[in-house]
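WARN  no MSA supplied for this record, continuing single-sequence
INFO  ligand: NAP
INFO  echoing inputs
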Amino acid sequence: MIGGAPAARPDDVGRDAAARPLAGRVVLVTGAGGGLGRVASLACACAGATVVLLGRRVPKLNRVYDAIAALAGEGVGGAVNYPLDLAGATPQDLADLATRIEAQLGRLDGILHCAADFTALTPLAQTDPLAFARSVHVNLGARAWLTQACLPLLARAPRASVVFVVDDAPESVAYRGGYGVAQAAQVALVEMLKAEMASSPVALTLFRPGPMRTPLRAKAYVESDPGRARDPAEHADACVALLAGAAAASDATPA
Ligand SMILES: NC(=O)c1ccc[n+]([C@@H]2O[C@H](COP(=O)([O-])OP(=O)(O)OC[C@H]3O[C@@H](n4cnc5c(N)ncnc54)[C@H](OP(=O)(O)O)[C@@H]3O)[C@@H](O)[C@H]2O)c1
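INFO  complex generated
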């Protein structure tokens, strides 16, 4: 891991719970340099967490890292960078990630799955088959593998939470390729995991933010009505609440 923050101390958990609901906790945010990942990472640090920033581009991660470092204040968490391309990461790479988080930070309390691979709205007939497979993998398979790799560590946290951010209520299901297929399949994945882990302390949540003004959406739509898509920052607090286990949502959709 690159960059450092002090390892969270178990006794910090629960202190100042209202103001810093993630005090002393460690959370992993994938796609941390993206639209939602960035603002959610900042909000998690404000809420007291040490945030593991996972993304494929170091400069983007560095900007989020620097923004978190600039927050510095009593009770504000820290960050570490974890550059990784989920398209090529093997199960062993993800097991190594869990091992490194445990070795460096001592615990893992949550994952916010924000990394998303989407190229453009394209009919299947014109879609590069390898791009289709990559999208399915990054948006579904890699999320499943990463969750699987981290489950033993998460299960040792007092109240762990895994949040899958999904985009399964689009204006149209056409032309979304592997990204769209993976959104639908993620709903099935989370339902399956919930059934399997009914007695586990690890909470699993689908979070459906709806349209957001991010680089991902800009690849699909030119906003004629800016009101149709929200600023991702409006969802940052909801991400914190879901990671903290404070939001009662098995299927969270903002009002
Ligand atoms: N935007 C919407 O309208 C909308 C609506 C509903 C749900 N969502 C969901 O919200 C979540 C966040 O999306 P967003 O709109 O914030 O998208 P975004 O701004 O495009 O961010 C996605 C992030 O994922 C990273 N990423 C892509 N491929 C990766 C890979 N192979 N390995 C590691 N990281 C990778 C990107 O890194 P790079 O910057 O390097 O490409 C980027 O930082 C996604 O789960 C998406 O499905 C979005």
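Residues 31, 33-37, 55-57, 60, 85-87, 114-117, 138, 165, 167, 209-212, 214-217, 229, 232 surround NAP (CB under 6 Å).
INFO  checksum written, moving to next record
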